[in-house]
Amino acid sequence: MGKQAGRDDGRQAANPLVRLLEAIAFLRAGLQALPDPQNDRYYAALAAVVTARLPAVYEAYDACLAETLETEGRTVTCSRGCAACCRHFVSSVEPFELVALDLFLRNRPDYGDLVVSSYRRARVYDGIVKEEGDDENAEDRALYRYFLRGHACSFLNPDGTCGVYAWRPMSCRMFYSEASPRFCAGKELASPWNKNFQVELPQEAEEALARCARLLDHLALPENLFPGLVEVNAAFGRYEVPSPAGQPGNPELRSASPPNPAPLS
Ligand code: SF4
Predict the structure, then answer these.
(1) 86: Cβ below 6 Å to ligand 1?
(2) What is the pLDDT, as a whole number, of residue 14?
(3) Whose CA, among 30, 85, 172, 259, lies 20 to 30 Å from 4?
(4) How far is the CA of 23 from the centre of ligand 1 (A)?
(5) Is 162 in the pocket of ligand 1 (CB under 6 A)?
(6) Domain ranges, residue 62
(7) Distance between CA atoms of 223 and 90, rounded to whole angstroms?
(8) Cα of 62 to ligand 1 centre, how many Å?
(9) Structural domain contains residue 56
């Protein structure tokens, strides 16, 4: 992203939170200036805004995380290629993140397979949620049971690195461990030796992100990664697959290659 008018680069370098708030405000201004969603130019404009402005949010977000980890004296044990946590059902994903990630994925030749893979994971989770009912702990139990199934994220590379690293959502970025990776796997997740934690950013950053997200409420995207990507594809994509909610797909979607996803293990 180019320079934003009126920014003080010295202040940015010294204060990641200021940088983050400015980057979020810049993204929000772009989203506010979008044409009406019914306008033919809407999606192209949305794509242009998230592609141009979300990277600065991620860059500042990562800097904020790093500063918080240092301030809190955390001893993070995560390392490149350790993908123990990439079996979680990724939740709390912002709609502008889903749109940007879909844009990145659609240039890949395996886009169709990734949509189907996401769809299958969404269905697995839906099935578990239905079994768990709707009491206050049901979601936690469902997330734990999904994790125990061990389904790797659709975007995980065979070498354990993230295949969408630059566009991975904030939910993935904020997740760390302070224990040996073996305590991040399987039932060890519930053991006292598991030291997973999430970095919470200041409330003003969370509220600024929420204000951005509300500008895309009309898209009604799920807040979870896999069903969210399926729904973005249904709205704007090019691969026909039924939505998890059972809604008919976008009739204008072009047919891609037949689904041929690797079976879930
Ligand atoms: S998006 Fe990347 S970091 Fe997040 S769960 Fe998937 S592979 Fe892991």
Answers:
(1) yes
(2) 62
(3) 172
(4) 23
(5) yes
(6) 9-236
(7) 9
(8) 15
(9) yes
Q: Is residue 25 assigned to a domain?
A: yes
- 148-175 burial, b for 16+ CB within 10 Å, e for fewer? eeebbbbbbeeeeebbbeebbbbbbbbb
153 CB less than 6 Å from ligand 1? Answer: yes
- The pLDDT value given to residue 238: 64
Domain count, the chain: 1
CB burial class (10 A; 0-12, 13-18, 19+) of residue 211?
middle
Report the run of H or E that residue 197 belongs to, with start and end: strand 196-198
Of 144-153, 210-219, 234-243, which range is least confident? Answer: 234-243
Query: Once rounded to an integer, what is the mean pLDDT over residues 15-38?
Result: 96
Q: What's residue 254's pLDDT?
A: 37
255 found inside a domain = no
pTM reported for the whole predicted model: 0.86
CB 94 within 8 A of CB 31: no
Query: Does residue 203 have a pLDDT over 80?
Result: yes
Q: Would you say residue 223 lies in a domain?
A: yes
pLDDT for the residue numbered 5: 40
Specify whether the backbone of 247 is left (phi greater than 0), alpha (psi in -120 to 50) or beta: beta
